[in-house]
Automatic annotation (TrEMBL):
GO terms for molecular function: aspartate ammonia-lyase activity. Residues 15-341 form the Fumarate lyase N-terminal domain. This is Aspartate ammonia-lyase. The lineage of its organism: Bacteria, Bacillati, Bacillota, Clostridia, Eubacteriales. Residues 407-457 form the Fumarase C C-terminal domain. InterPro entries: Aspartate_Ammonia-Lyase, Fumarase/histidase_N, Fumarase_C_C, Fumarate_lyase_CS, Fumarate_lyase_fam, Fumarate_lyase_N, L-Aspartase-like. One of its GO terms (biological process) is amino acid biosynthetic process. SUPFAM superfamilies: L-aspartase-like.
């Protein structure tokens, strides 16, 4: 201790270093804190929880194999379970931008668990962060495994349920709005009539397809390479350890984790996060499209399309009284821009895989897991604050539909494409409706009226 009792003296392979006296971490974590004062960002709760799951599972497997004494093993497991519960999150202090591959993050977990395990054992045991907590492990196999475990949990418990509800609410709106006829639009110009419900059904199916793709990604993420150790050769490892450790992970997560098809491929690359991040980027692109459409359809309310009404959630201007903006849709678009940028970061970091490992794993972990969290929260907010409250403005839908010049499309089979085109051009140039032009030309027969009736076109 120093004279003020604020620090304690510890040492590692590089020598002595002062560690805060109330810290549960040790010298290697302290060096990382001092070496990387970069962003203040830390890896999320889901990743720390996954680290605790791995440490507890490793201790269980090592005890079963007779490699770790029961007294030390039980203390390590108890401390790891406290980490799983989130009791010591404030002791995980390493910046996201740290030493390559996440060695500092792994040692942060090892040191916290070792320190806490000694406390649990009443100080009677000498529990070492590397020899005991990190037994049968390496950063190189545990870090990507922790990332996959964290991703599976956050996708399964957060993102997929949020997307499922989003799809369901869109489908409810599709069913609700199916009787509403409106003008379709292509190139942002008049198109043939359609049902408002058909438009929303397209949104719902788009999200459904993304859900299926994420579920496929989950299957890949269930691969974890525990036992690969430094480069995949299982050095210093009991051959029974990988299956025992992964089985324990399965018990603790209630998820079907399994060994990779090829451990060397698993450790050389970040295949699973890269693939899933591409799907999240696709989701972001679709969300931008859907929310942009909803902004257009709700634009106005007096000078835009105004075919749907959004629930008002807050004042929209500091100068224009009574103005209400599509705030939730704008927020969603912002988040999706961030996700697209995040995917570029993950792809770029994925290129950093060299020989046996990828040293950019901390960046990939932070970016990937934050993307899942952002999309989960955004989707839940989009549904509760916007989608469920959308209403159809049926009178405006009818107005635009009846004024649409694309109704002339119904005349092509009767009059031919060229003659129908001339009628549409004349109506446009003279600012008349199609019916008015047809009446002037004495063409408003029963057959023609039926051909331009929107109900017969949808």
């Amino acid at each position: 201790m120093n004279s003020k009792n604020n620090f304690r003296l510890e040492n590692d392979a590089l020598g002595n270093i002062m560690v805060p006296s109330d810290a549960y971490y040790g010298p290697q974590t302290q060096r990382a804190v001092e070496n990387f004062p970069i962003s203040g960002l830390k890896l999320p709760r889901s990743f720390i929880k996954a680290q605790g799951i791995i440490k507890a599972s490793a201790a269980t497997a090592n005890m079963e194999l007779g490699l770790l004494s029961p007294d030390i093993g039980k203390a390590v497991i108890a401390a790891s379970e406290e980490v799983i519960e989130g009791k010591w999150d404030n002791q995980f202090v390493v910046d996201v931008y740290q030493a390559g591959a996440g060695t500092s993050q792994n040692m942060n977990a090892n040191e916290v668990i070792a320190y806490r395990a000694q406390k649990i054992a009443g100080g009677s045991l000498d529990i070492h962060s590397n020899d005991h907590v990190n037994m049968s492990q390496s950063t190189n196999d545990t870090f990507p495994s922790a990332l996959n475990i964290a991703a599976v949990e956050t996708i399964t418990e957060g993102l997929l349920p949020a997307l499922a509800r989003f799809q369901q609410e869109l489908q409810k709106k599709a069913d609700q709005f199916m009787p509403v006829l409106k003008a379709g639009r292509t190139h942002l110009h008049d198109g043939v009539p359609m049902r408002l419900g058909q438009e929303f059904s397209g949104f719902a199916e788009t999200i459904g397809a993304v859900i299926k793709q994420i579920e496929s990604n989950l299957n890949d993420l269930h691969q974890i390479g525990l036992g690969g150790n430094a480069v995949g050769t299982q050095i210093n490892l009991d051959p029974k350890y990988p299956s025992k450790a992964i089985l324990e992970v399965c018990k603790r997560t209630n998820a079907p984790f399994r060994q990779p098809v090829n451990i060397f491929s698993f450790m050389q690359n970040m295949n699973e996060p890269i693939r899933c991040m591409l799907t999240l980027k696709e989701l972001a692109i679709h969300l931008i499209k859907i929310t942009s459409d909803l902004r257009l359809l709700s634009s106005g309310p007096r000078t835009g399309l105004a075919e749907i009404l959004l629930p008002p959630i807050q004042p929209g201007s500091t100068i224009m009284p009574g103005k209400v903006n599509p705030a939730i849709l704008e927020m969603t678009h912002m988040v999706c821009c961030q996700i697209i940028g995040y995917e570029a970061a993950v792809s770029t970091a994925g290129k950093a895989s060299q020989l046996e490992i990828n040293v950019m794993m901390p960046l990939i972990a932070h970016t990937f897991l934050h993307s899942i969290e952002l999309l989960t929260n955004t989707t839940e907010t989009l549904v509760t604050k916007c989608i469920t409250g959308i209403q159809a403005n049926t009178s405006t839908c009818q107005k635009w539909m009846e004024e649409s010049l694309s109704l002339v499309t119904g005349l092509s089979p009767i009059l031919g494409y060229d003659a129908a085109s001339q009628l549409g051009i004349k109506a446009d140039s003279e600012s008349k409706t199609l019916k008015e032009v047809l009446q002037e030309k004495d063409l408003l027969t029963e057959e023609i009226l039926k051909a331009i009736d929107p109900k017969g076109m949808v």
